[in-house]
């Protein structure tokens, strides 16, 4: 099958926010206070981070090619600066189909808020969404695209909707074991089913990281901590399967780094930030091949 058979495309109008909105908080990993401001941007801008606290206020596109590290979060950067923990805000923007936006940030890390994407959804709703005059291309897969390494697998299948299906597997955790969830991603279902799911960690994994100073801002009000067969957070979980829902939240954010709109059913098994962003790069390469062939 030729590459021209792999895709079909459609178009819809680009979108941005109506108004600027801001939010402040503490970074989960750095423990540093930071403030972000979401600022509307013209057609063709894309999603761009701007470090307002650095000389010359440098900018960084939210694209997979700028992924530097994935140490329990996704870090974008260049040789000179970086922006950490971008996945939650990008997840909310992707679910709301926002194409053009400047994310001004004072500090090295996006605020963790409550460990979910709900505060960013509420920020988007406060700002409002505007349809712009220019259109964008939407890629529709005709054949599968996949990425595998060991027992981690991701595949994008042809679909009439953007859907994520995720299988989580922690065989050594009495409480987690396996969880599965599937969801059609749009603004409504994202807010109802995904946005409020918080980041989580096993107690025995997170304690050494805190002791080493790798997680300076971790608290029970911005992460779910699991020890044995119990959740340490006094309020418990927001969903019985909150953990797999958060994995979907992360995956949507990492797939936003493709930087182009696409329709597919993405199936993930045990994926994390490294595999998610590697898969995003695989999608980017496939779309580039499509563009090259169709020129």
From TrEMBL:
<comment type="function">
    <text>Catalyzes the hydrolysis of UDP-3-O-myristoyl-N-acetylglucosamine to form UDP-3-O-myristoylglucosamine and acetate, the committed step in lipid A biosynthesis.</text>
</comment>
<feature type="binding site">
    <location>
        <position position="250"/>
    </location>
    <ligand>
        <name>Zn(2+)</name>
    </ligand>
</feature>
<dbReference type="InterPro" id="IPR011334">
    <property type="entry name" value="UDP-acyl_GlcNac_deAcase_C"/>
</dbReference>
<protein>
    <recommendedName>
        <fullName>UDP-3-O-acyl-N-acetylglucosamine deacetylase</fullName>
        <ecNumber>3.5.1.108</ecNumber>
    </recommendedName>
</protein>
<dbReference type="InterPro" id="IPR015870">
    <property type="entry name" value="UDP-acyl_N-AcGlcN_deAcase_N"/>
</dbReference>
<feature type="binding site">
    <location>
        <position position="88"/>
    </location>
    <ligand>
        <name>Zn(2+)</name>
    </ligand>
</feature>
<keyword id="KW-0443">Lipid metabolism</keyword>
<keyword id="KW-0444">Lipid biosynthesis</keyword>
<keyword id="KW-0441">Lipid A biosynthesis</keyword>
<dbReference type="Pfam" id="PF03331">
    <property type="entry name" value="LpxC"/>
</dbReference>
<dbReference type="InterPro" id="IPR004463">
    <property type="entry name" value="UDP-acyl_GlcNac_deAcase"/>
</dbReference>
<dbReference type="InterPro" id="IPR020568">
    <property type="entry name" value="Ribosomal_Su5_D2-typ_SF"/>
</dbReference>
<keyword id="KW-0378">Hydrolase</keyword>
<keyword id="KW-0862">Zinc</keyword>
<keyword id="KW-0479">Metal-binding</keyword>
<comment type="pathway">
    <text>Glycolipid biosynthesis; lipid IV(A) biosynthesis; lipid IV(A) from (3R)-3-hydroxytetradecanoyl-[acyl-carrier-protein] and UDP-N-acetyl-alpha-D-glucosamine: step 2/6.</text>
</comment>
<feature type="binding site">
    <location>
        <position position="246"/>
    </location>
    <ligand>
        <name>Zn(2+)</name>
    </ligand>
</feature>
<dbReference type="GO" id="GO:0016787">
    <property type="term" value="F:hydrolase activity"/>
</dbReference>
<comment type="similarity">
    <text>Belongs to the LpxC family.</text>
</comment>
<feature type="active site" description="Proton donor">
    <location>
        <position position="273"/>
    </location>
</feature>
